[in-house]
Amino acid sequence: MLANRSRLISFAVAAVAIAALIIHVRRYPVLTHDDAFISLRYVQRFLAGHGLTWTDGPPVEGYSNLLWVLGCALLASLGVELLVTPVVLGVASAIGIIAAVVCAFPPSTWRESLPAFAGAMFIALAGPIGLWAVAGLEGCLVGALLAWSLVLLRRLMNRESDDPKGALLAGIPLALLCLTRPDGALFTIVACGVLLVRSRTREDAVTAVRVAVLPGFAILGQLGFRLAYYGDWVPNTARAKVALATARVEGGVMCVADAGHASYALWVPAMLALYVAWRDPRRRPRIGLTFACLAAWTAYSATVACEPYGFRMLIPCYVLLAFLVAETFDWLQAQRHHAGAAAWIAAFGLLAWFAYAQQTEPSIVLAQQERPPATFKGATIGNTLRDAFHDRDPLLAVDAAGAIPFFSGFRSLDMLGLNDAHIARRRSDSFGDGTQGHELGDGAYVLSRAPDLIVSKRLGASHLAFKGGREMEADPRFDEAYRRVRMQGDRPVPWAFYVFSRLEGRAGIERSEGLVTIPGYLFANRRGTEAHLGDDGTPGVRFVQSNQVALEGVELATGTWALVAEGTVPVRMTVRAEPGAANVTQTADGLELVLVRPGPVEISVLAEPSTFLARVTARRVGD
Question: Is the pTM of this model over 0.85?
Answer without folding.
Answer: yes
